[in-house]
Amino acid sequence: MLKLPGLIDPHVHIREPGATHKEDWDTATQAALAGGFTTILAMPNTIPPTFDRKTLDLGLASAKEKARCDYAQFLGAGPNNADWDAYPDLPPRAAGLKMYLDSTFGELRLDDMTLWMQHFATFPKHLPIVLHAESRTMAAGILLAEIYDRPVHIAHLSLKEEILVVKAAKEKGIKVTCEVTPHHLFLTGGEGKVRVRPRLTAQKDVDALWDNLEVIDCFATDHAPHTLKEKDSTKSPPGFPGLETALPLLLTALHQSRLTIDDIIEKMYVNPKRIFNLPDQPERWIEVDENASYEIRAADQFTKCGWTPFEGWQVKGRVRRVVLRGKDVYKDGEILAEKGYGLDIRE
Ligand code: DOR
Ligand code: ZN
User: Facing residues of 153 across strands?
Assistant: First the structure.
């Protein structure tokens, strides 16, 4: 049995409020525990989007009632909240600020670069800004980080050109960090049911991510559940569930010597904890049976969405036990934490 720290996923879409038929705080945090995550950071593209006091209070009230693992909620950058000096009490209550600079699911896309500048200038520097920014937009975001002398974290980096730009920026001492999703490490190409943003890429991009593992700070799932019916429709919304498949996929890669156990611990615990300024939490660990082989099946998952892009994949490495604040919260397929056991780590 392999003992690891409780994992941290800095990129999860919960769907509550607004689309709880896809997922809610209860099912998302059950999926998190089953996947070995004891802390998740929730994205703000809810309905309504989370971008002010009222909407932050709304999301956090559901979380407090239902979450079974620990969490924090991101604020979204919009056109009407770019002066954070006007609401000094809000940022410290959030995981950080998420800025959607490229097209995605939801209404939070921000096109006006003068608004980007205001957000960069006023959001507190000790709290992270996370960018959904692809290709040249990503390079523009990194330039703003340098201009405003503040850290920036690039979400779900996927292209060869992106990892090379981030590598070069780090070599120059720019305060940029980045995350990569398992789906961009293990899948290539495609639209339709496998529609996701950023898109699945070509083999040369996937190879560039594996060749530059040392540039990747975090593995983040971008767990973005949509129901099987929605995914099978002609207007398939972009996004994949990922909380329950991330660790088994990466442990399988560990067996194939594509990465090391230290890579997993660094990118799924040490680095997210540092980048997102998360507190120490004693008495939290997970136990993994490294040699247990099994087949990934949507029918075995806790997520409400009812499908996975990895259906039928054979993986090696199963989460057996999860301990959070000294209590068994997951054991051999069973969720043992009550609703509401999860704590807001910014409270
Ligand atoms: O594929 C995606 N789905 N990419 C995003 O940026 C958002 C996400 C979602 O919320 O469904
Ligand atoms: Zn996302």
Answer: 130, 177
